[in-house]
Every structure is written in structure tokens, then in C-alpha cells.
Amino acid sequence: MIPNFIHTYVSVDCVVFGFDNENRLNILLVQRHFEDIPNEQHRKLPGSLIMNNEGVDDAAQRVLTELTGIKKMVLKQFKCFADPGRASEKDVKWMDKEYNHHIDRIITVAYLSLCKIDRKINSSKYETVDWFPVDKVPDLPFDHNQIIQESLIEIRKWIESDFTIIFELLPKKFTIRQLYQLYSAISEKYIDIKNFHKKISSFNYIIQLDEIETNVSHRAARYYSFDQKIYKKNNTKLIK
Amino acid sequence: MIPNFIHTYVSVDCVVFGFDNENRLNILLVQRHFEDIPNEQHRKLPGSLIMNNEGVDDAAQRVLTELTGIKKMVLKQFKCFADPGRASEKDVKWMDKEYNHHIDRIITVAYLSLCKIDRKINSSKYETVDWFPVDKVPDLPFDHNQIIQESLIEIRKWIESDFTIIFELLPKKFTIRQLYQLYSAISEKYIDIKNFHKKISSFNYIIQLDEIETNVSHRAARYYSFDQKIYKKNNTKLIK
DNA sequence: TCAAAAGTGTTACTTGTACACCCATGT
DNA sequence: ACATGGGTGTACAAGTAACACTTTTGA
After folding, report:
1. Residue closest to D23, CA→C1'?
2. What is the pTM of this model?
3. What percent of chain A has pLDDT above 90?
4. CATH number among 4.10.240.10, 3.90.180.10, 3.90.79.10, 3.30.360.10, domain A9-161
5. Which residues in chain B show pLDDT less than 50?
6. pLDDT, tens digit, for every residue of A79-96?
């Protein structure tokens, strides 16, 4: 080993976003087990050490598949977290048990991913996987809370640079109000909903469906869908 | 060691941009020495393994200071490169010599930085440090050529999200044409220079100086400077 | 009939784009 | 005189923002 230089394991951690019926962004968290404290409910971001013949993108895709059962999920690397103090004593102890090996510093590469919240989660690795609204996320190990904070800034940038990834978070059929609520939840800048409506419905890749809402105590809204093929043909930039 | 998981060193590599008098983006490259082949001229991106008590940002800042002698340089992490095949056989051999230790896979975190090209480079670590125009960069070890390719996309995004970092690349006094040429070199989208002129001079943090060009065979252009304080007071978003 | 949200239309304002025109300087 | 780029002005197009008005539905 070369003195003074770190020689360690590298992991990936994934922040998976969903959008719930109450217009809140949610994040998928898994359970961290302490064998000696079985009742303590500890949550963490899904993640994994990187394997020998694996790149970071591969590792993140593997984590996502093990997490949800979905083969191909959109993902985006956004930052490497490597603060020397990011693993607390408790985290180090947990790694001792989890990996049966002593690791005192670990570097992680953080990924963003998006998932329709009504998709069934079928994890092959984790017993417990749950959605948490971003403002209800508990205290997490390592710097996972900080990773989530920064992921919020990142998802905003992502949507600004490619508006259409927003449709990864919506059901196939959606109303313009849903799209508006989601956009507002992410971008945090105010847009007049009527102008938003006009703008969105002017895009030719937003397909107007025949179906409308039912059982609402006001005029029923029309459902729309997103047509990726038409979008790709004339990929005009959208909401700047 | 835990089987199947990588257990390795992590490095940072820095892509430092400069803007030359011929309106080209340049990159700083250092010399890689082969003790057994002293005459071979090998270039690489400046970089370093990460030390024990150092975060990645710290490591990048250290590399930059060792490279240029400048204490604080702007920097931006942009991507972790971890492809299992990124170190060729030759690269592995070089690391054997350089670190006197066998490393067969290495993960790197890539950083962008910006430097006024007329600043004196005073490296405490490298004997040879030179500017290379981006289209004259030779074949480099590891995936350094790919890192540079991706850094070009990244610098474009950076300037779109914060226009004022462009002034890190210009001399303190600059003409609007210089700014225009630089902006064009980075953004690659055409803007009418007259409209650009009008727009730029309308910003109150672009200070019109009394000095003008000399020895030019046309009407002399005025010099301007960038006032960060005024900018920070009313940080309006600029060229979107 | 009323409240709530859908959906359309109108107008004013702001910004971007294209380009004409005059100015200054060295050859 | 003329080529080259500096710098200003103008006119039109396009996009954005504010908001009035009509429609539909359940309670």
C-alpha cells in the first residue's frame, strides 16, 4: 500500500424520485439492519459497493434493478461524495457487520433516478422499500441527507435542461394540472397555470386523449399523454 | 478484503481551460515521465491520488495549486470516470513505476477549472506544464481524451448556468469582441455581434473603461472590466 | 345557484433578431 | 479612398405575463 493515499472501497448511492397524489416529491428509502438492535428502524439510500468488473453507471443500474425489479431505469450521475468524515462511528460499525470487514472511509458516487410512483416495487435485495415525501425524510446514516439535499438542486437542473424527463414521474395518462403541480414542485418558480396550459397544449408531442376525469366536483379535465417519437423528431427546446 | 468488490485508489484529474490570443480554448497538460524511455514525450492531465485526510474538492484544489502556483482557483467537479478498462497495460506499467506499487484499476473524479492564459505558471510539482489548443491535444493515457471531450460539454453548461465565470478566462481589461469570441468558442451557437455588444454593454456590472485599443487598423475598441460586487448585488440571470 | 377548476381569448409588455447607418483608424 | 471593425438606432417578430371570460361538474 502506498502511504498517505486512500485505498478503499467505492460505492454508488441512488436517489430515486417519485411524485405522489398529494403533489409531493418522494424518495425511495430502504431499511438498514442492525443485527444487535433488531427493533431500531433505520433507513438509508439504496446503494452498493462497486464490483470488480463494473463501471459506476453499471453499478447504479444494478442497484436500481435490485431495488425495484425494473430492468432499465433512467439515471444520471450527479456527484461524488468523499468527505473524510462522511462515515460516522456508527456507520463504520454497521459496515463492519454488513461486510464482515473493517472499512473506515468510503467514497460514494451519487445518482439520480426517476420512477412512476404507482409502479409496483419488486425488490430482489431489500425486504423493505418505501416512499418518503422529501420533507418527511428521517435522519439517515453517512451523508445521505446531504446527498438528498443536493439531488433536489440537481433534479431541477435536469428538468431545465431536458424538460421531457418529467414524464418519467407522471402516469401515462395525466392532466395538465398534474403536470403543472409536478413542475411547480420541482422548479419552485411560479408560472400562471393558464399560460402553462396554453403552452403545453401547443406542443405537438403532447397528445390529447378522448378520456376525461370522472368524479371531480368541477369541470372534468382532459387526459393527455407524451409521445416520445414525435418529440424526438423535432426536439425543440421547451420551457427554458 | 471483501471478494468481488473493488478495493482501490481514487484520483482526481483536472481539465484547466485557458483562452488564447487566437481565440482558441486551450488546456493545460503536464509531462508524464517514463524512466526507461526518457525521450518519449508523453502528456497527461494533471492529477493525483487522494490522500487520507482529504476530500475530493481538497485534492483537486491541491492539484491545481501544485500545477500553477495559484492559491485559489475556481473549480467544479463534473464526473467520476470508473470504467474497468480505463487503465491500459501501458498505464498500469507506468503506475507500477510512478507509485512503486501495482494498481490495476483506478477510479478518477474529473474537475473543470479556468485560468487566465497570461498568468504565469509556477508549478511546484511538474517540470513541464504547457497549454494545448483543444484541437491539438495529443493522444493521452487512460481515458484523458474522453475526459477532455466531456469537459467541453460541461464548460458549455457551466457558462449557461453562470455566465460570469467566463470572466475567469479573460484578462481584467477586455474588449467586447474578445468576450464575444470567447463566448462563441464555448457556446458554439451563433449570436449577432452587434446585438451581443448592445446586450453586454447594457449590464451595469460591465464597466466601461477610459482606455481603448491601440495599433489596430480600424476604429479602436473600448476596454471593459467585470465588477463582481455590482453583479452580486443584483444577480439577474443573463444570457439564458 | 354556487364554488372550483377547465379551457379559450385578448392585450400589453419584454426580448430577440436582422440589419441599416455612421464613426474611427491604419494602410 | 477603402477596408475593417466599433458602436448606435430602428423596426419587426416572437415569446411572456396578466387577467377577463366562458364552460362544465358536483354539492
Report:
1. A219
2. 0.94
3. 84
4. 3.90.79.10
5. 236-240
6. 999 999 999 999 999 999
3-class SS at A216? coil
| Per-domain boundaries in chain B | 9-161, 172-233
User: CA A193 to CA A206: how far, in whole Å?
Assistant: 16
Q: What is the CATH T-level fold of the domain A164-233, as seen in this structure?
A: Arc Repressor Mutant, subunit A (1.10.10)
Q: Does B187 touch chain A (CB under 8 A)?
A: no
| B153 and chain A in contact, CB less than 8 A | no
Domain B172-233 has CATH 3.40.50.2000: no
Q: Is B238 on the interface with A (CB under 8 A)?
A: no
B100 to chain A nearest CA, in Å?
Answer: 8
Instruction: Pick B84's closest partner by Cβ from A54, A79, A80.
Output: A54
Look at residue A168 in the predicted model and tell me its pLDDT: 97
Helix axes B193-202, B176-187, angle to 10 degrees: 110
How far does the CA of A216 sit from the C1' of C5, in Å? 10
Residue A7, pLDDT score: 92
Report the C-alpha gap between B239 and B237 in whole angstroms. Answer: 7
The C1' atom of D10 and the CA atom of B227 lie apart, in whole Å, by: 31
* Among chain B residues, CA nearest to A78: B79
Helix B176-187 with B144-161: angle, nearest 10 deg: 120
Q: Which residue of A has its CA nearest to B110?
A: A80
**A186-236 tens-digit pLDDT:** 997 899 999 999 999 999 999 999 999 988 889 999 999 999 999 987 654
The closest alpha carbon to A130, from A145, A146, A115, belongs to: A115
Q: Is A43 helix (H, G, I), strand (E, B) or coil?
A: strand
Counting every residue written for chain B, the total comes to: 240
